[in-house]
Amino acid sequence: MSTVVFIDPYGERQTVEATLGQSVMEAAVNHDVPGVVGQCGGSLACASCHVYVQQPWSAQVGGPSEMEDDMLDGALAERRAESRLSCQLTMGPELDGLTVEVAPEQL
Question: Where would one find coiled-coil regions in this protein (predicted)?
Fold first, then answer.
């Protein structure tokens, strides 16, 4: 098990446990994290799990794939350099403690 810290747009933190190999979106949905919808179930067909990866985790998770990059262009909330779709972030032991801010608006 690893943990993921979600920060809502008002600064409230929620720490949840994630299974190794699980996506950050799945961990959020399983723990009813407000603002992470995951409407497409992780098939990279929507942008309803948009998050901003906090430092120092941005470098560790890397950038989006080309397809994710295209989906982020259509995200409802402001796109930032640290924007990622949480369905594309897979939990591994190296991401224990990963901290993300939930985008204020989702599709």
Answer: none
